[in-house]
Amino acid sequence: ASGRTPLMAGNWKMNLDHLQATHLVQKLDWTLRDGKHDFAAVEVAVLPPFTDIRSVQTLIDGDRLELKHGAQDLSVHASGAYTGEISGAFLAKLGCTYVAVGHSERREYHHEGDDVVNAKLKAAYTHGLTPIFCVGEGLEIRQAGTHVEHVLAQVRAGLDGITAEQARSIVIAYEPVWAIGTGEVATPEDAQEVCAAIRTELAELYSGDVADGVRILYGGSVKSGNVAAIMAKEDVDGALVGGASIDPAEFAAICRFR
Ligand code: PEP
Q1: Ligand 1 neighbourhood includes 97 CB (under 6 angstroms)
Q2: Which residues take part in binding substrate (predicted)?
Q3: What ipTM goes with this model?
Q4: CATH number at residue 128
Q5: Is the CB of 242 under 6 A from ligand 1?
Q6: Using CA atoms, how far apart are residues 231 and 258, in angstroms rounded to an integer?
Q7: 251: closest CA among 232, 212, 223?
Q8: Given the CA of residue 11, which atom of ligand 1 is nearest to it?
Q9: How many domains does the chain have?
Q10: For residue 2, is it within any domain?
Q11: Does residue 236 fall inside a structural domain?
């Protein structure tokens, strides 16, 4: 929509070991090239588990693939005594462009609140990574009809202290929790309502210029069969795709949404 380059990002979650990751990236690249995919017109990124990133980077660099890659999370810290954590500095050295921050599975299973999400967004910028900042409401909030307020509160809290220059490059993913991994996709109108509200909020927090440039993705049970209707909406600039992104033919079909 309006001059913004769509982004299709595949969140593999905790799936695929390094051999499977290598196969998937090769198949995805072949399928996209077979379909004459224009990577400048629709950007494609994969977010593998940490342990696959080196292999994915080697393939992408070695074969000069036009796919981009990133991580699913990062530490709030740069280095030190934080056992099991992964620094954004390490991700930057592995050629990551993107890092997902605040995915609902992190918020729910790892108790990441808005303060942690805010610190992770800042850490991403410190290390030159572009955050894919995830927000979205649960089912109860949707049923109560307060989903827009809820999501905008997450946006404001996450962006606290983030400068306009930083915000210009951010990617925001609106992912209603009730639609993630459930097969129950939001309607295009639901997606548009919240993505438009996020853009208006960005205009208030920063400027109309920043708001116009930021890519806002929809995520939640996106498939090749429902992506076109969602992408037709003015304020939806791409998709964050979970389950369907580990099937290369299906993910390639999503990337060819037009
Ligand atoms: C996700 O993991 O961000 C996601 C949207 O998952 P799914 O596409 O499987 O609903």
Answers
A1: no
A2: 11-13, 181, 221, 242-243
A3: 0.98
A4: 3.20.20.70
A5: yes
A6: 8
A7: 223
A8: 2
A9: 1
A10: no
A11: yes
